[in-house]
Amino acid sequence: MEVLITHGDADMVSMGLRHGKPMVTFPVIRDQPFWANAVSEVSAGPLPIHEKDLFSETITPAIRHCMQPETQQVCNHIK
């Protein structure tokens, strides 16, 4: 399984969902917070991580969340 780690703009979220990839998002500007929140709302990934909080201690559990079978099933269903 693969996990997409992205700033969460509309193009990357769309691509990730089309390919059934769970996502870890770290929105920075403009529409990114909207799309990053949408990812977690549909259970295609955890809550977004604020860019100032991007550390292994926050990214590792987010990746583990994405690797859960339930998250993968949601992404495959959306695909």
TrEMBL record:
- Matching Pfam families: UDPGT
Q: Which InterPro entries match?
A: Glycosyltransferase_28, UDP_glucos_trans
Query: What Gene3D superfamilies has UniProt attached to this entry?
Result: Glycogen Phosphorylase B (3.40.50.2000)
Q: Which GO terms describe its molecular function?
A: UDP-glycosyltransferase activity
Could you tell me the keywords of this UniProt record? Transferase
Record bears the keyword Transferase: yes
> Keyword Magnesium: yes or no?
no
Task: Write down the PANTHER family for this protein, in alphabetical order.
Answer: STEROL 3-BETA-GLUCOSYLTRANSFERASE (PTHR48050), STEROL 3-BETA-GLUCOSYLTRANSFERASE UGT80A2 (PTHR48050:SF13)
Q: What is this protein called?
A: Uncharacterized protein
The organism named in the record is Penicillium subrubescens
